[in-house]
Amino acid sequence: MARHDRVAARYAKAIFDLLKEEKKIRAGLLELETIVRLVEGHADLAKVFNMELFPAERRRQVVEDLAKRLKLSTEILRTLLVLSDQRRLGLLATVVVKLRLLLLESSGIIPLNVETASDLGAPERQKTEKTFSQVLGKKVEANYVIAPPILGGLRVTAKGRTYDGTISGWLSAMREQLAEGRA
Fold it and tell me: Do residue 144 and residue 166 come from a single domain?
């Protein structure tokens, strides 16, 4: 899996360098996200994107047809065709994630991954983002994920560091303290 991440990161960097301007990168990212959602929502399309069994010409035809129907930019069409020719269309969702991270980084924004037991309302999200913006000293953008194993609280990952404010995290810390005789 790490290899796929590295390959996806290289494609994301190439797209980032191709589009250059923040406005173009944001527009390209929206187009790519649309394709990812479309592929995730259609099993037959997902097979074409994710299985190498389809002939190269057929994959190319599907990509060109999608681009035409969705009125994708020339740069994004070229990107999709390169991914198709290199049999890397299956990495598109990961490429999109990596491209978003590059965009945030270039804008001086720190991405947060926030895991919670249930969906947070707008006030809780604003408070979380404000708190981490203050802690990290930069503007943040959060991605919220519902993780049922978390009984309560939240776990935030930013800049390679995890801030665990979950009940399960608290219980683990307490267990360690008891085992070490500190509690």
Answer: yes
| Residue 127 CB partners (closer than 8 Å, separation 6+) | none
Global pTM reads 0.73
Q: How many CB atoms lie within 10 A of CB 179?
A: 9
- C-alpha to C-alpha distance for 114 and 112, rounded to whole angstroms: 6
Sheet with strand 109-116: strands edge to edge: 139-146, 109-116, 153-158, 161-166
Do 98 and 115 belong to one domain? no
Supply the range of the domain harboring residue 97.
2-104
Q: What is the pLDDT of residues 122-144, one digit of tens each?
A: 999 999 999 999 999 999 999 89
Q: Give the pLDDT confidence of 31-90 residue by residue, as tens digits.
A: 999 999 998 998 888 888 877 777 888 889 999 999 999 999 999 999 999 999 898 988
Q: Which has the closest alpha carbon to 118: 143, 142, 141, 145?
A: 145
Dihedral class, residue 142 (left if φ above 0, else alpha if ψ from -120 to 50, else beta): beta
Residues 99 and 121 in one domain: no
Residues 121 and 139 in one domain: yes
Written as six digits, the tokens of 13 are 């960097």
